[in-house]
Automatic annotation (TrEMBL):
Residues 155-165 have a biased composition (Basic and acidic residues). It comes from the Bacteria. Residues 155-189 are annotated as: Disordered. InterPro entries: YceD. This is DUF177 domain-containing protein.
Amino acid sequence: MSTHLDARDPLVVNTHELVRRAGATRPFHGTAPAPADLGIEVIGVPEGAPLRLDLDLESVVEGVLVVGTVRAPLVGECSRCLEPVSDEGVHRITELYNYPGREADEDELFLDDELLDLEPAVRAAIVLDLPFSPLCRPDCRGLCPRCGLNLNEHPEHEHADDPDPRWSGLSGLDLGGDRAADEGPAAGD
């Protein structure tokens, strides 16, 4: 099925010199703006951020094999303390783009005439590689579960222990108070 790719799109590559020439290879190095929604809820690549592509395209019997890396800036929030997180991810791509008309599974990628769209391969490489629980640092202490204070900034922070709830019924009783007042006047008064 042809999707009519736009050859001017920075994530679309023309493979004219590779098509149907098994064994032919060519490098592809470039920068492209990140598409929208490239990430998960807590971390991802900002839309329009530069993706640095270092790929090798190789013509094989089935189509064009794309192998290499994509570097992308990652931003999100720490899953423990909710502070901002930023990093650069290096993600590996290995994807076969099948020739049109070739029998393949539904989820496999195909060339559109001589064009291939890198976006699905880039998206899969980055999103599947993202941490589900990103951390600002490996030893992040998180937030205080009682008051929400950032324990990285206040490592000595603590709360008094709560009394055992089994004893809460006794909290309203006067168990000792002022004995002299309870006993009445002293003898000889």
